[in-house]
Task: inverse folding
């Protein structure tokens, strides 16, 4: 998997900055190389939100199997953290802010 690159200077963006973007729920990022602001594309926003669906499905499926909550909850947390840490690889950026819808 490759990390996204800056749309101004083509330099690969830092994983740390991308992770911060995930946790801050912001839609823009400043490149650490050229200091230009760039915005998450509509397409990658859709991709990252699609990542959460299999995760929700898994949760309901495990509940359906009547797996005890004591097992379900920690595994849910582990999967959630896994998804969050994978998100930086699914971002792509553009120079202009795109409308949400
Ligand atoms: Zn840059």
Result:
């Amino acid at each position: 998997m490759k990390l996204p690159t800056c749309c101004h200077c083509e330099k690969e963006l830092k994983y740390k900055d991308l992770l911060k973007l995930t946790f801050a729920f912001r839609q823009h990022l400043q490149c650490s190389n050229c200091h230009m602001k760039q915005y998450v594309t509509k397409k990658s926003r859709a991709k990252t939100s699609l990542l959460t669906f299999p995760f929700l499905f898994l949760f309901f499926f495990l509940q359906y199997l009547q797996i005890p909550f004591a097992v379900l909850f920690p595994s849910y947390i582990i999967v959630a953290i896994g998804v969050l840490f994978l998100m930086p690889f699914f971002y792509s950026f553009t120079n202009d802010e795109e409308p949400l819808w």
The chain has one domain: 15-94. Residues 42 and 99 are 8 Å apart (CA to CA). Helices lie at 15-24, 42-50, 52-64, 69-86.
